[in-house]
Amino acid sequence: MTPCDATLTPDAAAAIRWDVVIIGAGPAGSSAALRVARSGLRVLLIDRGDLPRGKLCGCCLSTAAVSELVRLAIATHGGPLERAVPLRRISVAAGGRVAPIDVSGGATLSREALDTDLVAAAITAGCEWLPHTTAISIDEGPAAADPGVSVVVRTSPDSPACRIEGRRLLLATGLGDHVRLSRGTAPIQARTLAPQSRIGIGAVLPAAAAPLPPGELLMAVTPFGYCGIVRLEDGRIDVAAAVDRHELTVAEPAAIVRRIMSTACGGEPVAALDGLESAVMRATPALTRSAPVVDGRHRTVMRIGDAAGYVEPFTGEGMGWALAAGRLAADALVDPATATLAPADVAADRYARSHAKHFGPRHARCQRVAAGLRLPRLVRLAVRAAQLAPWAARLAVPAVTGSLATRHVMDRSTAGAAS
Ligand SMILES: Cc1cc2nc3c(=O)[nH]c(=O)nc-3n(C[C@H](O)[C@H](O)[C@H](O)COP(=O)(O)OP(=O)(O)OC[C@H]3O[C@@H](n4cnc5c(N)ncnc54)[C@H](O)[C@@H]3O)c2cc1C
Predict the structure, then answer these.
(1) Ligand 1 center from residue 3 Cα (angstroms)
(2) 134 lines ligand 1 (CB under 6 A)
(3) Cβ contacts of residue 415 below 8 Å, gap of 6+?
(4) Contact 253 CB / ligand 1 (< 6 Å)
(5) pTM (two decimals)
(6) Among candidates 88, 67, 79, 86, which has minimal Cα distance to 34?
(7) pLDDT in tens, 334-390
(8) Separation between Cα atoms, residue 6 and residue 129, nearest integer Å
(9) How does pLDDT run across 63-106, given as a tens digit for each residue?
(10) Most CB atoms closer than 10 Å: which of 66, 124, 187, 409?
(11) All domains of the chain, ordered by start, with CATH?
């Protein structure tokens, strides 16, 4: 029995009125589940998949993500940070030049390990776990002093639908948010995609695929997309790229990754990526998007993580944002003095305010970086400058990734000083 084996069936879950139902067990959903469960409320975490499972991701934890994980204080066997590999160097390649930049405070960790550890910690804290269960639609109950939400779920396309009731709902379904929210009779899919949005493609390759040392991230940048390559804690090579959408209409994903590598590195085989063509490639929908963070007539639905908005992944902040959103939502939902659910309106206002304050400046900075990456001369100039003055590049990294305040957290946490 693994820590994430299900002990609940949808029918059994339908017999309970949950305080909080959370759909999606990525970092956003599981960190929120962990925090709400620790306050003693009844929490149900639902996912269409099971764990451990991979996910298309660069697998680099920013210093902010590391800091969020330290704040979660997962005690079991040191939690995910014990397994993570400290990130020591980012080599940025563009226009045939490669600039190595020393960094500190970040880490790499596979999504199998991170997501499984987070859900296991949530279960240990008292959260109930329902895998293999897809949420189809959400309905709010009639207006009342204590409004509620019901979620229609299925375990397979032809299994009977089942209705799970909760007092509040967190939508943590990532980029593929296909859950319908019914407003009266009109279902809506509330999200806005940026017109120039790139899409994600990637794969995880065997350890021998590239001679990349642990703790080094190779970031290859071209005008039509970029690709990050890193060795995971178990030795496998993670390849994750963000590319212009039209690229996929003219080439296979593996060919696009190879073209990014050869264009950025100037044809030199910086990373051979053996076996890329036969690997299972994953792809995402459009990456840059936004959606209302609070939804529903009675404001009982909150979106967290990518489901609430995302900007493409160059600065490697998505998991940190997801963990932070889980924290902000849990803080808004639970009244700290009484450890009870805050009224829906109060929680919604609190969450909307804290989300805008926390993510507004971060998303704006990330948008500016994304725009800059589309200017080849600027990128080439930056790489040339980083080659000539590595110390200046080292100082510039936190300004690009927004990690100045927490840059040495990973070093402290791996030294056993997590608090
Ligand atoms: C190419 C690429 C590279 C990236 N690189 C990095 C990086 O290096 N560092 C970083 O920090 N971030 C990176 N990111 C971003 C990061 O992967 C995401 O921001 C992060 O996973 C968001 O977490 P989340 O919990 O919001 O969603 P997710 O991790 O996507 O989790 C969503 C969960 O919801 C479940 N789900 C979806 N719909 C339903 C449904 N209807 N019913 C039940 N369950 C459902 C899914 O199965 C999934 O488990 C990258 C992203 C891409 C695309």
Answers:
(1) 21
(2) yes
(3) none
(4) no
(5) 0.94
(6) 79
(7) 998 899 999 999 999 999 999 999 999 999 999 999 999 999 999 999 999 999 998
(8) 6
(9) 999 999 999 988 655 678 889 999 999 999 999 999 999 999 99
(10) 66
(11) 10-59+114-194+288-367 (3.50.50.60), 85-107+195-286+374-414 (3.30.9)
